[in-house]
Here is the input.
Amino acid sequence: MAARLDADERLMRVCLREAARARGRQRPNPMVGALVVSGGRVLARGHHARAGEAHAEICALAALGRKPPRGSTLYVTLEPCSHHGRTPPCAEAVLRAGFSRVVIAMRDPFPLVDGRGMKALRAGGVAVEVGVCEAEARALNAPWLSVVERGRPLVTLKLAVTLDGRIAARGGDARWVTGEASRRVVHRMRDASDAILVGVGTVLADDPGLDVRGVRASRDPVRVVLDSRLRTPVDARLLAPGPGVIIFASANASRARERALRARGAEVVRCRGTRPEPAEVLAELARRGILSLLVEGGGQVAAAFLGARLVDRAAFFVAPKLVGADGVPAVGSLGIGRMAEALSLAEPRVRRLGDDVLIEGRLGSPT
Here is the structure.
């Protein structure tokens, strides 16, 4: 039994690597991988590449090109679906293929599945095992699970700061706080994110493109701006053609400014109050299929998301530089009066990037 479990875990990790090949391209769906295995040997593999295309199980069967040998096992990182969506139910295809056993990393919490796929397989006489490498499977699809289970994207806060906690010098100059090695990692983070968010202050100060550069097989994230009064310039670099720009504004922002920005291809979303609130923004992004959001600042935006306890992960790129009290703070006021109330990084990881240091981890509760 232990040997079988070891083999299942080994093969499921192969399956998880297969699933990860679609990272960042499959939204709003989860990353899913599948293996067809017979006699301990992988005969075929497949992954779900994009929404609307074949699911991982179907891709693996297509790669095999024939009916699996008698007694074959299907490994899949997520419970096979049991409902008609953009594609037919995978559970039915698995049953028709004649697998004797299906090993699943995790149950699908999506309400239209949530155990129904496993029930259908067992009713068809297939032996089903679930929970193999479940923690790894949940980590792989943390953004998708965040939307399904919490109704909002997974949020990562990224800040490039000096040793004294500044993101820019006096007057707003921020090019460059960190070195090239750090910036390469940031572009990989952008490439892996569905959307990137900044405040209008960053747009006015830096005119960022918010695109991905220097990353192999890259794709640009959706660009999101918090801009209560619609001050984003119509010639801003981020309005260049791409996957889309969403500007969140107040309910009473200028209609003329909205028309001008829409003419440049931006979508303007008016929020209920005088300023976009993080929870409202995240709920709207989730409705649009955004699974992961990279918040890049500035300081007031960082404070808004941190203060609302809506940051899941943080990545601080720290440069060995000092600019003093005149510099722009990395995070605005959080109203914290005692060190015991401070937000903390859980299980922080530290690594060197050229002359810089990256400190990253999950946002935990106050210490």
